[in-house]
Amino acid sequence: MMFQDTMSSFLGKMIKIDQGCQEYGVGRLLDVFDDYLVVQTEEDGVVFYITQHIQSVTENTKEFNILFPEGFEYKKANNLLNLLESQKLNWVKLNRDSQVNLEGVLYDVNNDMISLIHNEEIVYISFSHLHNISIG
């Protein structure tokens, strides 16, 4: 809860999220939940970062040039499992800055893993290996 409280103080601000191994994201912090953060990035739009893989967060004072359109909305749920459940059969990109990134249609979600339709195959990914997710 302490991490969530600290991160809430950065709402609306520019941050850099370090996930190790040259995986990082820069953007405006939109929301904070128990097990994930919502960040608006310049490159990938809204990205959901899984908190258990965040090594550090840096407040960034660099100007951010994305304009939020009127009525801008993003997907929300009280936890990551519910967020992913609500996105079944939508296109997702997983671990976008990693060497092990993957994209496809989110097929199924349970407490331990998700399944993704990728190039006519179903790929099963353990929740513990999800670092970040982009939807759409």
Give a quick precis of the structure.
The chain has helices at residues 2-8, 80-85, and strands at 14-18, 24-32, 36-41, 45-50, 56-59, 91-94, 102-109, 113-118, 121-126, 132-135. With 136 residues, it is mainly β.
Task: Characterise this structure.
The protein is 10% helix and 43% strand. It starts with a helix and ends with a strand. The relative contact order is 0.19. By secondary structure, it is mainly β. The chain is built from two helices and ten strands, in the order αβββββαβββββ. It folds into two domains: 2-59, SH3 type barrels; 80-135, SH3 type barrels (Roll). The chain has a ten-stranded antiparallel β-sheet. The model has no long low-confidence stretch (mean pLDDT 85).
Give descriptors for this structure.
136 residues, 43% strand, 10-stranded antiparallel sheet, mainly beta, SH3 type barrels
Radius of gyration: 15 Å
* Class per helix and strand makeup: mainly beta
**What would you call the shape?**
globular
Order of helices and strands: HEEEEEHEEEEE
List the domain count as a whole number: 2
CATH class of the largest domain: Mainly Beta
Mean pLDDT, as a whole number?
Answer: 85
Number of DSSP strands? Answer: 10
* Adjacency order of strands in the biggest sheet: 5-1-2-3-4-10-6-7-8-9
Major beta sheet summary? 10 strands, antiparallel
CATH architecture of the largest domain: Roll
Distance between the termini: 30 Å
Q: What percent strand?
A: 35-45%
**Number of helical runs?**
2
